[in-house]
Amino acid sequence: MMAGRIERIGSGGFMTKRWLSAAACLTVAAALWAAPARAGEDSPALLAIGVGYFDVLQSDDTAADFRLEYRHGKGLWWFKPWAGVEATSDGTVFGLGGILLDIPLGRRFALTPSVGVGAYGSGDGKDLGNTVEFRSQVEVAYRFENNTRLGISFGHISNAGLGNRNPGVEIVNLTYAIPLGALLGE
Description:
Blueprint: E1 6-9, E2 13-16, H1 17-34, E3 46-54, E4 63-71, E5 79-88, E6 93-101, E7 103-105, E8 109-121, E9 132-143, E10 149-158, E11 169-179, H2 180-183
Antiparallel strand pairs: 1-2, 3-4, 3-11, 4-5, 5-6, 6-8, 7-8, 8-9, 9-10, 10-11
């Protein structure tokens, strides 16, 4: 598919690859612009649980999406590591890890773009064309006084052309993140 060509995505409307690329570039630019203000600032390690809707745009193999992620509180430069597992009601399992940026938007909100790579097993769910798959995601979360967070994320999983097929999938997820110290009684 050529860049800029209009592609029908689900029954919800039209979207162009240029628009998606522009949105990704704006997210990265915002992250790099805001990140220097956070140099040296660490947030607590978080355990995030989520539930959502798998294949939200194409809607040809929808399922409930569940995830569990560990998000490290310290990182290198502005980047922090994370690892997790994602599963669907169709038996899909995706174990992955990557890096994230944790960008404060004022005192109460945070923008968290992330990228990761891992092993994908489709089970009875959507076949994405390869075992190695990549996930890119952006999350906006409300930060409570006790450092817990409630957020919504939009993500995309694809094999980046590594397989013969690359249908990709989009996921919307509601996430609740709890400081790991609070779970351990610290």
